[in-house]
Amino acid sequence: MEDSLLKSLPWIPADDPAENYHAAAKLSPWVSESFSGPYAFELANDPEALAGFGVPSSIVDSAERHPLVPATEPTPVGTVLRDRHSATGFGPSQVDFGQLSRILLDTACTSPAGRRGAPSAGALYPLDVYLFVCGVRGLASGIYSLDPFAAELNRLRIGKDPRTFLSETLLFQDLAESSAFHVFFIASFARQRIKYGQRSYRFTLLEAGHLAQAMIMSAQESGIASCPVGGFIDQEVDDLLCLDGVEQSVVYSVAFGTARRRDAA
Ligand SMILES: Cc1cc2nc3c(=O)[nH]c(=O)nc-3n(C[C@H](O)[C@H](O)[C@H](O)COP(=O)(O)O)c2cc1C
């Protein structure tokens, strides 16, 4: 490598906390520690403990309470938010390519003004979007990457059947077997590391949440059901997409499909 290029790359020590944490938080078929914390089983079977979770510690006794008084009726965005819920499986119908396009254009692609539907620290956009398409009318089943500038999907020359791959890789089989398409968010950590150092790892994960939420909301508005999925075998995704799992790695995913009749809002 040329000297000038070496100088411009961030220096990453061998024992790097962000890289170590990323490795420690991966799921694998062999190591379950990162998936189930030591108290997971007890917790899942203790209704009293479960009821206590999800209660914010910011709720305090106060002599001065102010019930919220909205200035307006729910806005269109507010209605989408209030109706949002995660699907546990999907219906048999396909999603249209037009519906898929709407979601990607509104969230991950650049607008004519150069903006995107989710914010990025330093406008460095460390996340790339890959789609595993299984049931989209007007788009062949396959594995695609998104070009956010050209607003195009590029079909990758990967021989693996996307449905088979999802079934092997996701821990939640109803979602794997019935989704119309599944989005994986792939981080190129160095893109933000250059500017934000260790803090960039936090930013990259936060941005995956922003982008996923934007897609979930856009989908909900078009009547498409979704579920965020953190339960996947990291290395299988990384290997299939030829990522080294350190500089580039999968961080998050969302399954999309048509609503099952019993789940429809
Ligand atoms: C980071 C994250 C990871 C999640 N991973 C999974 C998952 O792997 N499988 C799944 O079925 N649901 C997953 N969920 C969905 C949650 O189970 C769901 O949001 C929660 O039960 C609350 O339900 P709601 O989204 O309908 O309000 C995940 C949610 C988040 C935020």
Q: What would you note in describing this structure?
A:
The structure is a single chain. 36% of the residues lie in helices and 17% in strands. The chain is globular, with a radius of gyration of 20 Å. The chain has a domain at 91-265: NADH Oxidase (3-Layer(aba) Sandwich). α6 crosses α10 (199-221) and α9 (190-196) crosses α10. The protein has 265 residues and is α+β, with helices and mostly antiparallel strands. It starts with a helix and ends in a 7-residue tail after the last strand. β4 and β5 form a beta hairpin. Bound molecules: flavin mononucleotide.
Strand content: 15-25%
Number of beta-strand segments: 8
Taking strands numbered 1, 2, ... along the chain, how are they ordered across the largest sheet?
5-4-2-6-8-7
Order of helices and strands: HHHHHEHEEEEHHEHHEHE
Average pLDDT, all residues: 91
CATH topology of the domain at 91-265: NADH Oxidase
Number of helical elements: 11
Query: In terms of per-residue confidence, which ranges show pLDDT below 50 for 5 or more consecutive residues?
Result: none
Name the ligand types: flavin mononucleotide
Counting helices, strands and paired strands, the structural category is alpha+beta
User: What proportion of the residues is helical, as a percent range?
Assistant: 25-40%
The biggest sheet amounts to: 6 strands, antiparallel
Give the second-level CATH assignment, the architecture of the domain at 91-265: 3-Layer(aba) Sandwich
CATH superfamily caption of the domain at 91-265: NADH Oxidase
